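Researcher: I'm preparing a figure for a lab meeting and need a structural model of a single chain. I don't have an experimental structure, so a prediction will have to do for now. The sequence is pasted below. Please return the structure as tokens so I can convert it later.
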Amino acid sequence: MIQGTDLEPIIHKINDNTHSLHNFQEKLLNKTSEKEKTVLLDYPTVYIHNWKKSGGYEVYVGESNNIIQRTKQHFDQSEDKQNWRSQLRRKSASLYIIGHDHFNKSLTMDIENRLMLYMMGVDSVKRIHNKRTNPQNRYYPDFEVNDIFRRIWHKLRKTDPSMFPNESVIKDSALFKASPLHKLTQEQEDIRDRIIERVFSVLNEQNGDGQLIFIDGEAGTGKTVLNSSTFYELYLMAEEEKMTDFQCCLIVNHDEQITVYEQIAEKLGLKNKYGRVVSKPTTFINHHSAGKPIDVAFIDEAHLLLTQGKQSYRGKNQLQDIIERAKVTVVMFDENQILTTEQYWETEILGNYREKAKENGNHFKLTKQMRITASDETISWIDNFTKENHLSAIPMDTTGYEIKIFEHPAELETAVKTKAAEEEHKLSRMIATYDWEYSQNSSMEKRMKKYWEVLIGDWHKPWNHELDKELGRKEKNKNKTLAWAEQPQTIDEVGSTFTIQGFDLNYAGVILGPSVKYRNGKIVFDPSESWNLKATRKRTLSDGTKQRFGETLIQHEVRVLMTRGVNGLYIYACDKELREALKEAAR
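Model: Understood. Here is the structure written out token by token.
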């Protein structure tokens, strides 16, 4: 038992069986203080059923006005082997009962929701058996939720650090950030409701095949959370409507993001029940036909789709191929994150898709910046640098967001590692423009060097996934479920746009390589200095002509890098004129 005060939660952990529940009730009635008895028996409570399975934990989180009666109901239904409650018969099953003298119905629901959200980011939690959260609007005393939850988690952590790790570890998790269990903003919620309404309208009409829903949103505006939340909600609604043949797939052309979505599908039971619900574009296209379309296809990071054929993809336009294989296609798109010629969209063709969506009332735009915790002035400074090629004075930011300029890459490295040593900022890494040679496929013998490296004067660091080669099997297996920035050895590497795109950092240490220059008062992007052949080679357009788009694509690359940092942006520029201009801007 963890004793409570006026501000502290009361938490009991008991074995998950009728005998322990009876003893718990008897103790409350006869041996505890009147206050504790009142808080746990007369007030709403939150509870966590949990048991060990598959080398980790499975959990069910709930709230109740009568914890004794609710727990007995769960025990009564434990005979059903198709129900999660059957797991309560395991010897390892235990129950946390959480009370607080400020709990009311809405507050307990918010605590329940946040516990479910946190569990999504806990590595040792393999399955969450809840269906959906129940987000609350304003109530009294909603201003206490953060403090009460922090105290609850702190005390739970003392009982089992494996199931309740440090909050910063959870919040840095890619699973946590992409979780469909986040409370949506009003903007996200409105768009989600419209998407769901449109989907069921099309499915009920049986004549609206090929509907396109197009959502524009820049980096950090919450596209991924909106996508995963809507995707998951549709599955829950289809289950409630007993739509046994419902087919919905989440598609993304990014290896690390695929891993994140697959883990989410597994934790929420979708993979076990529906099979393959997450896919890469080419795999989806090859496994489905236009003659037998699925119900809904969600495309996260649709700017990563291919718009021309390559060795692994024999078609001409992945978006069109997906639209033909789904009754409804939901697209999340950011033009400023297109990085390669094979992803490049001709203005007219892309405009046609947007117009098609607009004609049907299916075009939406996410505008609220949710990643960067900076002032509007700081966000405008980053926008001006990365979109307008304009360098102005770096504003003073009263929110605590930091922009720092460095004279030498070693100083940048020291600053990033100093931040990464702090528990709340451990997800801080160095990232760079693709201005140094790298080939994932070349053997070490062919390279005649130990690592592909970022080399600046006498300073050098391995880049992308080079340090993987020195890891043992155990470390490699553990890293399979982690994004590049979450892997501990990457603090000694430099990542590229292809490593970090779609993910957050606490502090982003950005190296602007030789392709980013400053000339005549403007930022200039020089493709001749880039090693990113996918950005600098010619692209064959629909009219048969060939053009280069290197300057635009390198500009997009810089924007991806400079919008990764949640708490700060550290910059080193290789180009001397740009470095001096940045130092002057910082003064």
